[in-house]
Amino acid sequence: MKVSRHVAGAALAAAAVLASPTAFTRAAGQTPASVELGTINFPTSAKPAAQTSFLIGTKALFNFEFDLAADAFREAQKADPAFALGYWGEAMSFNHPLWAEQDLASARRALEKLAPTAGARAAKAPVGKERELVEAADVLFGAGDKLARDVAYAQALGRMHAKYPQDDEISVMYALSLLGTARPGEKSTRNAMQAAALALEVFQRHPQHPGAAHFIIHAFDDPDHAILALPAARAYSRIAPSAAHALHMPSHIFVQLGMWDDVVASNIVAYKAAVDLADKKNLPRGREDFHTLSWLQYAYLQQGKFDEAQKCVDQAKTVADKNLDNPRIRDGYASMKARQVVETARWEKLALPTGAVRDGGAPGYDGSAAYVFAAGVSAANLGDLATATVALEKLKAMRTQAESGSNAYRAKPFAIMEREVGAVIAATENDMAAAEKQIKEATEIELSLDAPSGPTEPIKPSFELYGMLLQKQGRAKEAAAQFQQSLMRTPNRRAALEGLRQSTPTTSTSQPQ
After folding, report:
1. Domain tally for the chain?
2. Which residues contact 91 (CB under 8 A, 6 or more apart)?
């Protein structure tokens, strides 16, 4: 490990890696003994009191616990107002690279507390890694297009990695910056594999590093590569058990491998941790809590534990009913409700209001494409073709609106669901030629999508639905081929496995290798 040349009290700072994070835990409402976010080795020029909070903040960043990170870095600023990386860290807490999200204004305000200009900020940091990190942040939060800034930031971190190749923290930050250049629908395998190689190297020599384990999982988060991340997935929740996100992240790999028992176990503890954190810090609901709850529901559905899955939906509805003006919460619940109906095939009439509000004056759930899809498929299966047609038109409008935006990729899930509902309507009307035409088009579009990173999106894989339509026509061999194709993209799904078993009753239904 190379150390910045201008390090005041470097020995104390290095020893503070495992120090008791008192200042941080005051803000987070936890006792020092309860905070476990992994271990890192990041000596800086900070005063010892600031270094303690800085290390906690950096580990929180690596665990994507961004609210906790911001608190810790502000504590570092109070303890050492001249410490440049305290402001760097707060700014970085407003960047969510893997979701291409960024609160640019808040990040800039955090940096401006250090100094008003990029040059002045750099001058306040010691020459070496600290100054280079501050300069890299000014690239990330500078002028221009977000993707261009992400790429330029990754290049800056790449230069730092070349200069400090044995520095674990720089290596892990560089890995994350590479992952942050990915965009949906654009081939990014090379950057993902480079990030994986960086993180794997750190993980091998530092198996308690939270960022290394975390970013291995993200780099291999697809059905083809997921098996390579299984050791990191098994380790990550033990590395950082105080981070709700760390408790949830292993299930990304478990889902890709169809390991439903592990998905359930992961998200039970992750959901509780997310709710506890939201309560302690008065954070808005509908973020990590709904995310983990929806994954828990999905895993229960794949296990065939429909009643347990319904309990998750009921929990979500309790929160949604109190927050109907919050679209994240409202649509989060609506998607869970939709998945429950579609996965169980327990068809029911789902209201599709034609106006902007539902009964009682609160916004309706038809802003969720998944809900509209479920309403349409349910209605068609119940013989209510009028409602099914309304759903079809709503999906068409969503697809058209998405196509008019700057990201045409966003429209593809809507296009798939639109064709799926059209296929089910046509099949209900016994027009199997039209149904097959629609569902074939849906599968062609789905092949152009990335494999889902978690519960299926769209909620009904088109290959799976195609197999079901073929089964109804007695075309078992063709149906089996569709179920096999579906299992390649979404391993071990209950409906596809059952469809494959029914289509090939005299042969093994083991998954394709």
Report:
1. 1
2. 107, 108, 110, 111, 137, 141
